[in-house]
Amino acid sequence: MDLSQILSADYYLWDAWSLVEQDKWHLYCLGLEKYDSTGALINPDDRNNHQFHIHHFDSADEGGTWIDRGIFQQTSICANGADSGNVWSGDSHRTAWGEYWFAATGIRAVDSEHPFVQSLMLGRSSSPDAFDGVMTPVLMADEHHEELLAKDYFLAERAELGHRDGELGGSILALRDPYIVDLRDSENQAMVDVVFAAKACSGVPAMGHIRVSLTGNAPELVEICPPITLPDADLFTQFEVPKVIFDANTQRYLLLCSTADRVDESQPEEEVNRYLRLYYASDLRGPWIPATQDGSELLGTGCRFGATVLEYNPDAQQLICLAPLTTMDESGGLFFDYPFAIDLTKLGQRERLAIQILS
User: Fold this and answer.
1) Confidence of residue 296 (pLDDT cuts 50, 70, 90)
2) Integer Cα distance of 133 and 286 in angstroms
3) For residue 215, what pLDDT is reported?
4) At the N or C end, where does the chain have fewer CB atoms within 10 A?
5) Could you tell me which residue, 297 or 23, shows the higher pLDDT?
6) Alpha helices per DSSP H over 76-155
7) Local structure of residue 147 (DSSP, 8 states)
């Protein structure tokens, strides 16, 4: 089957998450209009200075054709203002009983020097086509500051949270990109594990972990778990947009993520190395093992970053993924290139995994 790219004449597109139903694939991503209100072209490397939205595409033929469904979610829909500044990456999830739950990162500006105070938000929608619910913050960098520090998360002092120049001279605050992992029933209480991009107490990139109850009208934080360590976190400074899949055939978890080695926020893009990485583990909390003996980095990804898993084929032991291109691609990027496959039968072998481009 022929598969397609997703290009837009009107929007920059980046960071992806998805929801697969029996007859349709839903793709969500961050979006920003290419031209501002005066008609001037926005420099894509300056997009953090503008308000994003979450964009929606769907496909009824497994990626052969993608239909642009427009804006799925805007900013400023959280009652306490957690997303009053911007909305960043998140996730989409359909429960066993058919409810649609969505996650996103809320961005609130305290002042011009602190525009990136982050919160993890969850909300229920009656439809996967356009968000019509209420986003509720379940974890906030400022409100849960002491609790996060007590669990060995790394955060700047409360007064310095969300600084535009980064945390303590490094990259910006890391409490973002929530991903809903798996559903469990515990004493008649619907519980989900949510992982996210974080840093451990020493500033080392890590996968954050909370447990959230979906019982009642609004999600409720149940537990802040300690950050989950990654075996090769010394190779990068930022861990982003995690996707965790449970492989029932082999009783293992798979983690697909994006990483970067940005040193500080003033660093030119051409100096930053970005990779897609894959890990596996027998338990969500680890220990996580790099995809191969030679490392977690996936080969052949080019400038793909912020990938989603569209489909997991347990019989073929294959992941079908889709990712946008960064601005470092020769095309200028910020659109979706062709999907790619990852062969899971090669996990644990010596040579690094190379992706297979599907077109």
Assistant:
1) very high
2) 34
3) 87
4) N
5) 297
6) 145-150
7) H
Please report the pLDDT score of residue 183 as a whole number.
Answer: 57
Quote the CA–CA distance of 194 and 208 in Å, as a whole number. 8
- Residue pair 216/232 in contact (Cβ under 8 Å)? The answer is no
Contacts 24+ apart (CB under 8 A), 41-47: 42/12, 44/12, 44/327, 44/332, 44/333, 44/334, 45/269, 45/327, 47/12
DSSP strand E in 95-219: where? 100-108, 117-125, 136-140, 176-186, 189-199, 205-213
Helix (H, G, I), strand (E, B) or coil at 39: coil
Q: Count of CB atoms within 10 A of residue 20's CB?
A: 18
Nearest to residue 323, comparing CAs of 355, 296, 283, 291?
355
Residue type, 55: H
- What's the CA gap between 39 and 46, in Å, rounded? 16
- Per-residue confidence (pLDDT) for residue 184, from 0 to 100: 53
Q: For residue 163, which phi and psi values (nearest 5 degrees)?
A: -65, 140
| Amino acid letter for position 288 | W
How confident is residue 190, by pLDDT bands cut at 50, 70 and 90? Answer: confident
Please give the Cα distance from 206 to 242 (Å, whole number). 10
Q: Give the pLDDT confidence score for residue 1 in this predicted structure.
A: 45
The pLDDT tens digits of the residues spanning 43-80 come to 999 999 999 999 999 999 999 999 999 999 999 999 89
CA-CA distance, 132 to 84, in Å (whole number)?
Answer: 17
- pLDDT tens column, 99-134: 999 999 999 999 999 999 999 999 999 999 999 999
**Burial letters for 289-308: b for 16+ Cβ neighbours within 10 Å, e otherwise?**
bbbbeebbbbeebbbbbbbb
**What pLDDT, in 10s, does the model give residues 219-262?**
999 999 999 999 999 999 999 999 999 988 889 999 999 999 99
Residue with tokens 């969300």, as numbered in its chain: 162
Cis peptide before 205, with omega less than 30 degrees from 0? Answer: no
